[in-house]
Amino acid sequence: MPQAMILAAGRGERLRPLTDQRPKPLLPVRGKPLIEWQIEGLVRAGFDEIVVNGAWLAEPLESFLAQGQRWGITLHWSRENQALGTAGGVVQALPFLTDPIFAVVSADIHTTYAYELLRVRLERWRNSLEGEGVDQPPLAHLVLVEDERYPPDFSLDAKGRVTLPTGRAGTYGNIGLFRRSFFTSLERGENADLGALLRDAVSRHQVSGEWTVSPWINVGTLAEWQRAEKLFEGV
């Protein structure tokens, strides 16, 4: 039963006033809430257990997710009194994320990236963990996007390992696979972001990655929200 987590607890400050009365994951793009696109993409790829966290305006988001049976999956709700950050939110939800490997995506991106690619890699990693005398998978795998509108986070070396940005560089697309052991340095309830943990793991060559050319946008500002409608028109 492949598991995934959708990070949905952010305040959406740069999307105000839209997010003053509505949580960012429920903002519509192409006639559907952002988070619904993510859920549908994960379900199509075979992820049948999904965890969603929430903090700001959590009640309407929780009410929306209560309709989870229509997607035919197991859907868990991880409530945070205050947003715990991208890494802290995952750690808070670990009681639901029982698999040794799971996907993590953000609710506020919009993309046509095929999550089937993540699921296939997840199964391969799981087989590696269960095998004996084989190479162990890295701690994380990131999907990178090459778009000059976003600051570069990482590069890839010839072996497909993520490095600090040099030469061809791209932004982390907020799509990835993570092993539970990636988060062992954090306690539940601790506020922490993925960035610092990723840079540390990258420095130890424990993160792999891939480039995607699929349309992708981080819906973090009013301009990006408007651009998302145009970018995906007819897709």
Task: Describe the secondary-structure layout.
Layout: E1 3-7, E2 28-29, E3 32-33, H1 34-44, E4 49-54, H2 58-65, E5 74-79, H3 85-92, E6 101-106, E7 109-111, H4 116-130, E8 140-145, E9 155-156, E10 162-163, E11 171-179, H5 194-203, E12 207-212, E13 216-218, H6 222-231
List keywords for this structure.
235 residues, 7-stranded mixed sheet, EC 2.-.-.-, transferase, Nucleotide-diphossugar_trans, Nucleotidyl transferase
Explain briefly what this protein structure is.
This protein has six helices and 13 strands.
- How much of the polypeptide forms β-strand, as a percent range? 15-25%
Major β-sheet annotation: 7 strands, mixed
Count structural domains: 1
Named at the architecture level, the CATH assignment is Alpha-Beta Complex
What is the N-to-C succession of helices and strands?
Answer: EEEHEHEHEEHEEEEHEEH
The CATH class name reads: Alpha Beta
Question: Which radius of gyration do the C-alpha atoms yield?
Answer: 17 Å
Strand order of the largest sheet: 5-4-1-6-11-8-12
Q: Choose one word for the global shape.
A: globular
Helical fraction: 25-40%
Low-confidence stretches: none
Q: By helix and strand content, what is the structural category?
A: alpha/beta
What's the end-to-end separation, in Å?
Answer: 30 Å
Overall pLDDT metric: 90
At CATH level 3, the topology is Spore Coat Polysaccharide Biosynthesis Protein SpsA, Chain A
Give the CATH superfamily.
Answer: Spore Coat Polysaccharide Biosynthesis Protein SpsA, Chain A
